[in-house]
């Protein structure tokens, strides 16, 4: 169920990142979440006559009074948030959701690899461990393009005060004004050779979030080092797999071009409902959400498999690559659209 939240603070974290501080409009306490999880937002914005859905990760530890989510400007929805949403306005979201989550109380070492805006869920993880389980070994690797894209600089730097936490910050582009050891630690790409020997523990956990090339590089490097694939957890953001629409694409989608096309129907078997597919939506999941049919999901990119659904009849096509490969007879509604009439076991 979607809840209403009031924006009580809006903080610029870097040139293209804002954080929103959200309080429940009804005055209730916020629902607890695991570090790494997110909220699913539903927006109605100018230029689009259908609701637009986005996931934004918690970037702070849990607080019963408010949530903090952080957003990078890179598409029509994030641009609307960045340029137009103001303190005092109301947004709708549901959750917490997501399987890219850390159990803070465990004792085994954990390594966190962040690229750009991928720092948001990993910052929540690192800060939660610092507060709740300060004896747990943590290594945080954070790569950004340059100082203008260095979000949460002070918060990340503050983690170095904890003896159990190693922080390594990498700048791709260094200027004469950048000071090694203060602004950044290393120039270039994330270097896994900096991992402490503690991470030879076979039960160490590895969490990766960032641009696709960076994630695959880190994943492959870990596998080459003999890390069990089950210990590696990855999450991609919209910019990695399912880019946000541009204003032109939203406007084009709003026109709903169906000329010469036969209507496609989606039948929801357990719901007992049949709906005509609307091609303005990016996925079956978003179309279903807009019609009050819930398909439980953990991402919007086919990373986690939470939304895996039996496709009882018909064909779908995928709008972007997915980490999960559904078996024949299954589909990932978060990442596909129908190409024929379909029947879902929903």
Describe the SSE topology:
Elements: E1 3-14, E2 17-24, E3 38-43, E4 52-57, E5 67-72, H1 76-83, E6 90-97, E7 110-115, H2 119-132, E8 138-144, H3 153-158, E9 165-171, E10 186-187, E11 205-209, H4 212-224, E12 232-235, H5 238-241, H6 247-255, E13 265-268, E14 273-276, H7 284-290, E15 309-313, E16 316-318, E17 330-331, E18 336-338, E19 342-344
Parallel strand pairs: 7-8, 7-11, 8-9, 9-10, 11-12, 13-19
Antiparallel strand pairs: 1-2, 1-6, 2-5, 3-4, 3-6, 13-14, 15-17, 15-19, 16-18
Care to describe what's here?
The chain is of the alpha/beta class. The chain has seven helices and 19 strands. It has three domains: 3-97, Translation factors (Elongation Factor Tu (Ef-tu), domain 3), CATH 2.40.30.10; 110-239, Nucleotide-binding domain of ferredoxin-NADP reductase (FNR) module (Rossmann fold), CATH 3.40.50.80; 253-344, Ubiquitin-like (UB roll) (Roll), CATH 3.10.20.30. The strands form four sheets. A six-stranded antiparallel β-sheet has the order 4-3-6-1-2-5. Strands 10-9-8-7-11-12 form a six-stranded parallel β-sheet, with helices on both faces. A five-stranded mixed β-sheet has the order 14-13-19-15-17, with no helix packed on it. The longest helix is centred in the middle third of the chain and has 14 residues, at 119-132. The chain is globular, with a radius of gyration of 21 Å. The relative contact order is 0.13. The model is unreliable at 238-243 and 249-259 (pLDDT under 50). Residues 1-103 form the FAD-binding FR-type domain. This is Oxidoreductase. Its cofactor is FAD.
